[in-house]
């Protein structure tokens, strides 16, 4: 607020002047208190800044110490040193900023308060004093009597002098007020502007400093992505190695000893032994022994220099010692001395004796010029005392999955930004991604995209086939159909992350670029998909190959009429993949009390197969098949299958309305993954229910279509594996009725409820028993037993038994890679009588 006092007005000493003076004095008093407060706050800020700089210096010192400690890692050491130097420079800039704040705010404002405001206060004192004197002179002049001329003259003279003095004082006071009002603006703005320029300089210096540092930071960022991938790969390898070693039998430390004559470090064998001292007390001490460079040495600590027991093993011999009180002792005797040692067990003693003997033999052989090195495979050493092998790798991993997926057209570059050589994939979309886009997809949530590594993760065969059925080209034709029409720019490699993230969200979350079909287009698409006969013939590679109906086999004692009836009634029962001995060992493995062990009898239906390669299980269920099975023994099953499946035929009826859900429904039956992906992009509900067709779902239709890949695609997109139709049957019921063993295996792996009963009180197991499908019965029984075992063991084994998992992996591989072995029926035909 600008307050000025008129010089003419002050000479009048009017009430208006007095009011203005009073207002000015109040304003100056308030200004002084505000400036004092600002100066104190500035002092506090500067003190806090100095404390911050001090703590920051200690932090930078800690970074330098960490860099020195990481001297063996050149990347960490050089990067941390450079970062510490940059942060130290920022500390120096902070110090300059706080010094400037002290000069501009503290010093300048304090000077203004002490000098200018002090002059104002002194002028005010003089003004107040002369005002009082003038007021007294006026009163005295007014009170002078007429008859006393000398008093009148005296009062008049005093009043004249006082008025003259008042004029000088009041003019000076008004001048001081106006100067102060003018100067306050310049002083305050000058100090604050100086402070803001100090900040501007500080941030410019920081920007320039980190601009120079930015190339290094970008380089490290690129290296960091690879380091994260490498670390994940190393972690997975370590976990696999940990799991492999953990599976070995380490109940005895004996298994930890291994003799290797060609070890890279030259140490053929090493381990702990007790050594008897050569002193008078004959004390026994535990030492770390090793055989290296044809010498026997030991150490007390790792940093100690090895003590040589035997200089040259060629000059010594080794023998058992049974004449002392201690067990497991042996003695190494050289021409000059002998050394008594004790192992922890008899097996270890034998291993050490064999190792010393083989080392002696190796030393002699190495000495000759034309002698070959001792062959470890034929030596008498113990080798590794653990005979456990590595677990069999059943799923594709690493380069195998990568090569298969990248071989699909369009998959050689990231689906969203075009970055070449992608190493990640979205398994529910069926696309390949670069590491940046994979991180963005992961942030969308698994209901939009499920990210998996092509090199680090293990790939099930059905999931790998799903990736090969779709691909970047197919998905982009769906999700980017209107991109060019809308003028949207597709990201390029190296674009800022926020731009790529915005594009990916618009593409998959908002589905902004998806072309919505018209009602007529949707009707044409659904009708085309419903005509699945043509689709079956044109895409037969998705189905298991047809197998000719096997010739029915009769049990001994059957009549010829039975054979003709079998030929008329349907297909013959296929051999089970398990022979009776395998089944017996499997079930007894899961139930040591033998309650679930299948019976063997002359009437059990075990016969030699046509090629004589295995026996088959004719009676798939026995009286002890499961705890909830009938107690009475089931009668022998017929040698032929039922004539028809109880499943309802799949027939297309004109619906009341066409929707993306209906497209997904028929596309699942037609095994057309691109059409299924398109339906989901158009907003189809993955668990859509066809109320006009027994409340069947797309997953149930995928079962009838006979493809594991379509089932896997729906499950990856959150299809409910336990959703029932109007008959109370879920996907597992339908797969069992149709004899689709691979799908049964898939649904059991995904948590299908095998205890659910339909409206006829039929469970999947009872259906499989009625159909005499030995493989499906076996899978259901094993799944049931594994579930019971998992519940019994609780949190100690949440995934169940490893044998069960191995069996299901074998079935999965067979269903994907050799489906002919699992063919129970011919291709499902709704028109079959």
Features:
833 residues, endosome, disordered C terminus, alpha+beta, Arf-GAP with coiled-coil, ANK repeat and PH domain-containing protein, 14 strands, Substrate Binding Domain Of Dnak, Chain:A, Domain 2, 24 helices, seven-stranded antiparallel beta sheet, ANK repeat, Annexin V, domain 1, three-stranded antiparallel beta sheet, membrane, PH-domain like, repeat
Short characterization:
The protein has 833 residues and is of the alpha+beta class. The protein has helices spanning 7-12, 15-69, 74-143, 149-247, 346-367, 399-406, 435-444, 461-469, 472-479, 483-486, 497-509, 519-530, 532-538, 560-569, 580-590, 660-670, 673-681, 698-705, 708-716, 731-737, 741-749, 764-770, 774-793, 802-817; strands spanning 267-276, 284-292, 295-299, 307-310, 317-321, 329-333, 338-342, 396-397, 424-426, 431-433, 451-453, 458-459, 607-608, 615-616. It has four domains: 7-238, Arfaptin homology (AH) domain/BAR domain (Substrate Binding Domain Of Dnak, Chain:A, Domain 2, Up-down Bundle); 256-367, PH-domain like, CATH 2.30.29; 396-509, Orthogonal Bundle (Annexin V, domain 1); 644-822, Alpha Horseshoe (Serine Threonine Protein Phosphatase 5, Tetratricopeptide repeat).
Explain this structure to me?
With 833 residues, the protein is an alpha+beta fold. It folds into 4 domains: 7-238, Substrate Binding Domain Of Dnak, Chain:A, Domain 2 (Up-down Bundle), CATH 1.20.1270; 256-367, PH-domain like (Roll), CATH 2.30.29.30; 396-509, Orthogonal Bundle (Annexin V, domain 1), CATH 1.10.220; 644-822, Serine Threonine Protein Phosphatase 5, Tetratricopeptide repeat. 53% of the residues lie in helices and 7% in strands. A 7-stranded antiparallel beta sheet has the order 4-3-2-1-7-6-5, with helices on one face. The N and C termini lie far apart (102 Å). GTPase-activating protein for the ADP ribosylation factor family. Keywords: ANK repeat, Cell membrane, Coiled coil, Endosome, GTPase activation, Membrane, Metal-binding, Repeat, Zinc, Zinc-finger.
């Amino acid at each position: 607020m600008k307050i000025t006092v008129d010089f003419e007005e002050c000479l009048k000493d009017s009430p208006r002047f007095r009011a203005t003076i009073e207002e000015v004095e109040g304003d100056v008093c308030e200004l002084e208190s505000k400036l004092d407060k600002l100066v104190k706050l500035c002092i506090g800020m500067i003190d806090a800044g100095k404390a911050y700089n001090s703590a920051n210096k200690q932090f930078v010192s800690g970074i330098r110490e960490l860099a020195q400690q990481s001297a063996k890692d050149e990347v960490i050491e050089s990067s941390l040193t450079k970062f510490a130097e940059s942060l130290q420079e920022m500390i120096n800039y902070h110090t300059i900023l706080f010094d400037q704040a002290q000069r501009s705010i503290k010093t300048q404002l304090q000077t203004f308060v002490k000098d200018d405001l002090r002059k104002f206060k002194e002028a005010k004192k003089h003004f107040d004093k002369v005002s009082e004197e003038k007021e007294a002179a006026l009163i005295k002049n007014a009170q002078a009597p007429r008859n006393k001329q000398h008093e009148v003259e005296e009062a008049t003279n005093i009043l004249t002098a006082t008025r003259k003095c008042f004029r000088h004082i009041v003019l000076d006071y008004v001048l001081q007020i106006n100067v102060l009002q003018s100067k306050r603006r310049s002083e305050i703005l000058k100090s604050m502007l100086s402070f803001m320029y100090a900040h501007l300089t500080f941030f410019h210096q920081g920007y320039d400093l980190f601009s120079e540092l930015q190339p290094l930071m970008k380089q490290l960022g690129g290296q960091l992505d690879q380091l994260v991938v490498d670390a994940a790969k190393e972690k997975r390898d370590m976990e696999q190695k940990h799991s492999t070693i953990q599976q070995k039998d380490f109940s005895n430390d004996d298994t930890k000893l291994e003799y290797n004559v060609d070890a890279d470090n030259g140490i053929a064998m090493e381990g702990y032994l007790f050594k008897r001292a050569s002193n008078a007390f004959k004390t026994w001490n535990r030492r770390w022994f090793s055989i290296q460079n044809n010498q026997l040495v030991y150490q007390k600590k790792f940093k100690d220099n090895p003590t040589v027991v035997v200089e040259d093993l060629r000059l010594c011999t080794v023998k058992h010692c049974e004449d002392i009180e201690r067990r497991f002792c042996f003695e190494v005797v050289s021409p000059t001395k002998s050394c008594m040692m004790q192992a922890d067990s008899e097996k270890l003693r034998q291993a050490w004796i064999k190792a010393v003997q083989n080392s002696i033999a190796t030393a002699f052989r190495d000495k000759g010029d034309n002698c070959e090195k001792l062959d470890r495979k034929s030596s008498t050493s113990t080798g590794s005392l653990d005979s456990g092998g590595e677990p069999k790798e059943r799923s594709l991993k690493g380069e195998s999955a990568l090569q298969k997926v990248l071989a699909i057209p369009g998959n050689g570059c990231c689906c969203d930004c075009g970055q070449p050589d992608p190493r990640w994939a979205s398994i529910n979309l069926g696309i390949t991604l670069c590491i940046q886009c994979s991180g963005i997809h992961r942030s969308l949530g698994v209901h939009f995209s499920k990210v998996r590594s092509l090199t680090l993760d293990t790939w099930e065969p059905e999931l790998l086939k799903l990736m090969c059925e779709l691909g970047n080209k197919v998905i982009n034709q769906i999700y980017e159909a209107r991109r060019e029409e809308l003028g949207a720019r597709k990201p390029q490699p190296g674009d800022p992350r926020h731009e790529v993230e915005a594009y990916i969200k618009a593409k998959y979350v908002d589905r902004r670029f998806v072309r919505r079909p018209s009602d007529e287009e949707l009707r044409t698409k659904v009708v085309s998909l419903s005509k699945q006969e043509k689709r079956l013939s044109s895409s037969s590679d998705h189905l298991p190959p047809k197998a000719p109906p096997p010739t029915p086999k009769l049990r001994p004692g059957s009549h010829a009429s039975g054979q003709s009836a079998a030929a008329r009634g349907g297909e013959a029962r296929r051999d089970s993949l398990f022979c009776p001995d395998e089944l017996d060992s499997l079930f007894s493995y899961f139930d040591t009390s033998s309650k679930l062990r299948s019976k063997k009898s002359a009437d059990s239906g075990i016969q030699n197969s046509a090629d004589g390669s295995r026996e088959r299980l004719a009676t798939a269920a026995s009286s002890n098949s499961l705890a909830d099975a009938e107690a009475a023994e089931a009668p022998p099953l017929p040698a032929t299958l039922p004539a028809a499946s109880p499943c309802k035929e799949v027939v297309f009826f004109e619906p009341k309305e066409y929707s993306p859900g209906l497209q997904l429904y028929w596309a699942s039956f037609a095994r057309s993954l691109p059409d299924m992906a398109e339906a989901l992009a158009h907003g189809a509900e993955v668990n859509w229910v066809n109320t006009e067709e027994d409340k069947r779902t797309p997953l149930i239709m995928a079962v009838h279509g006979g493809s594991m890949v379509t089932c896997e695609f729906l499950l990856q997109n959150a299809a409910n594996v336990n959703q029932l139709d109007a008959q109370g049957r879920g996907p597992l019921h339908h797969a069992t009725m149709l004899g689709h063993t691979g799908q049964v295996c898939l649904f059991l792996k995904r948590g299908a409820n095998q205890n659910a009963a339909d409206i006829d009180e039929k469970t999947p197991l009872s259906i499989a028993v009625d159909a005499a499908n030995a493989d499906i019965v076996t899978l259901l029984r094993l799944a049931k037993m594994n579930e019971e075992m998992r519940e019994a063991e609780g949190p100690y084994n949440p995934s169940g038994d490893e044998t069960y998992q191995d069996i299901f992996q074998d079935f999965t591989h067979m269903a994907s890679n050799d489906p002919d072995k699992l063919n129970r029926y011919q291709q499902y035909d709704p028109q079959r009588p």
